[in-house]
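Quick log. Single chain, no ligands specified.
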Amino acid sequence: MIRTKRNKSSRFGFTMIEIMAVLIILGLLSTLVATKVINNVEKGREITTKANLKMYHNAVNNFRMDIGRLPSQEEGLMALIEAPSDTDNYPDGGYMESTKIESDGWKNEFIYEVVPGSSSGFLIRSCGPDGEQDTEDDIISTELN
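-> predicted structure:
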């Protein structure tokens, strides 16, 4: 048997160009995946916020039907889980299943406002992603119905 010697200059492995090409492709793929995930997270926050706004809006309307008035600005949404001192018909357990008022999808508190002269007499606001009131991204309960 005759053995042939291998040329010492031929090596096994990857060249720097091949490694760089793989890294660039992986970077592009991870960017695409990350943007999809971030968009879905934002969409989920918005959907959760809108659902909570509708729930609180309906609970305030139930409060008004049972008690005969809206919660005051000072009582706010807490009147849905803790009976105000001047109420007689307040149901056991309040108007919410939870014992606390949840924050919106961006961890900001909902804002309850009494608005005399409006069709519902009140609104509940989420300040949206920027957390600032009266900006374009605010979500308001009366606009959802």
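The longest helix spans residues 16-67.
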